[in-house]
Amino acid sequence: MHKLKLLVIQEGLKANAESFLSEQGYDVATVTTPEDAMISALEIDPEAVIWPEKFSGMSQWQRVKEVLESRKPLIPVSNNIWESRITAKHPETDPSMGMLDMEAMDASQPMTTTSALLDCLEDFQNRKNAKDVHFYTKVGNKLKRIDLNNIRYIQVEGKYSAIQLESRQYHVKASLKDLLSILGSPDFVRVSRNYVVNLEHINHIDVYQSTVQVAGQDIPVSRTYKENLMKNVRLL
């Protein structure tokens, strides 16, 4: 299962946060300065930001916090969380176990152990997955439900994007960039300026012709997006 893409803000050059979360399977980037935090947030588009409690009171970080939390969920952590490295879940020794409430969590309730943080991330991921399995689009005077796993590919057609299902297309007035953000699923990968494909429906990839076949359609893969496609397929 795909795990969250995280941006971790931490002090100094410690690698504890990145190595620990990477070991758990998360896609992690770490930053140590306000400038790098803003740049990385735009470049990697994380699904959540791990925020140190101590930075909330620092003037040079305040604007960064305001911008980040307006765009992405901020998960606050205590200042010494990476020193504890509690990876096992032991309810009898970890008072945070069994009491984590994602709905009630705010900046005044930082995660104090890595086990609590992992539970928080897992809960957030479950909520995200449950929320992102379908959407609705207007067809005539009705709202038609479209399940994400039924989408084969999406193609730009002028000001519209054509969403291709097994037996029909739906046209929506949105760019591919906006659609990727709305879909919020790692199964959808951009392969060219005009196409996004669902990895679950790729029949084969022609590395010489630079195409992917989806639902019997050969879709071109541009040089710009080829590396991104290959990073998202499991190759043995």
Please provide a written account of the structure:
The chain is of the alpha+beta class and 236 residues long. The protein folds into two domains: 5-130, 3-Layer(aba) Sandwich (Rossmann fold); 134-231, OB fold (Dihydrolipoamide Acetyltransferase, E2P). 30% of the residues lie in helices and 28% in strands. The protein has seven helices and 14 strands. Helix 2 (34-44) packs parallel to helix 3 (59-71).
Number of helical elements: 7
Overall geometric form: elongated
CATH H level, superfamily name of the largest domain: Response regulator
The total count of strands amounts to: 14
Percent range of helical residues: 25-40%
Short characterization:
The protein has helices at 16-23, 34-44, 59-71, 81-84, 114-131, 176-183, 223-231, and strands at 5-9, 27-31, 48-52, 74-77, 134-139, 142-147, 153-157, 160-164, 169-172, 188-190, 195-198, 202-206, 211-214, 217-220.
